[in-house]
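Reviewers asked in the last cycle whether our approach scales beyond single polypeptides. To address this, we selected a multi-component target totalling 411 residues and predicted its structure end to end. The input consisted of the following lines:
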Amino acid sequence: MINLVVTIGQRCMFVCQMIGRSGVFLSQILGWGSGFKAPVSRVIKQVYQIGVLSLPIILVSGVFVGMVLALQGYSILSSYGSQEAVGQMVALSLLREFGPVVSALLFVGRAGSALTAEIGLMKTTEQLSAMEIMGVDPLKRVFSPRLWAGVISLPLLAALFSLLGIYGGAFVAVNILGVYEGSYWANMQGSVLFYDDVIKGLIKALVFAFVTTWIALFHGWNAKPTSDGISRATTATVVQGALAVLGLDFILTAVMLGGF
Amino acid sequence: MHKRSLELGVGAFVIMSIIALLLLALNVSGLRYQSDADIYHLYARFENLSGLSERAKVSLSGVTIGRVVEIKLDTQDYVAVVKMAIKKGIPLSLDTSASVLTSGLLGEKYIGLSVGADEETLLSGDVIEDTQSAIVLEELIGQFLFSRSSD
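The resulting structure, written as structure tokens, was:
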């Protein structure tokens, strides 16, 4: 009985410790107190690694999600005789939810896991210690550019995801299901608001980008320097990243819709 | 040379995303630049709006010519005062009437205007006198039942 309480206590202490460590880690990456210093050329290289190389999966998923939304929306809306509203439904669900959330989940799987594994291996092969010995701060050289690259990339990816989804939906609705093209776009334009839907969706994506990149970098940095440690850290990145995205999505949506 | 192709990739990615954002703004949300110089405001007083909301359409002959900007309650007469932004260049006669309509059976509420025959036109800040409130389905059903039972 005492052992159980001790175990629970240990777990809680461990979680608190992790949260504290990751907070300190984040403040060091952001360079609070010493000023923001991430070399632009390194950020560009990481935008390529994180953003450009994620494009194929994001674009293809965007098109398919949009097409499925159009099919599903059509089958429900046509039973009310309002299949013209399918454009509005596709656009709003993509811009508000699917765009930011699905691209963030794909981003965690595609870029977050790669970041953790890369940094974990750097730690295992003692590249990070070597940098420190040479007087190079790995936080600025390795971590900071990756964090900023993630924050830049994901909102852009989410915008592309939503746009391609809307065009994919238009293709299915207009060319396959026979919705009149004019009403598809007109219904959409009549109901989608630039600030309330487009910008708020991108703000969501920005928050997801920050949190998921932070989680990925922290787990890489915190990984045990063994092959087992790296695999655990990568798993933790994907699981915690996905949970963080979905949990934050609920909170952000509640705040943005003003339900609370 | 590898660095150059990398920068090219990033540049193309960023430009593509900005184009996507512009398309989302212009094509999907139908955002149009509208300054105060392009619109003028009209007011209309309704007894019952029945779910008309801000940003609802204002249409004339089925063509959208403006939006509802603000809805207030006049606490003296207890009527709703609707402020509408109408595109400049669409003169409306002084005896224009406004009514709260519904698009389709279950669609959103909007304001329909119909122009009268007066030579003079409404100016910015004017109030449309001739208004018709929204039809409330429950009241209609109530009236129908009442007239049936009195027969």
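The longest helix of chain B spans residues 2-28. We regard this as preliminary and will revisit it once experimental data from Aim 1 are available.
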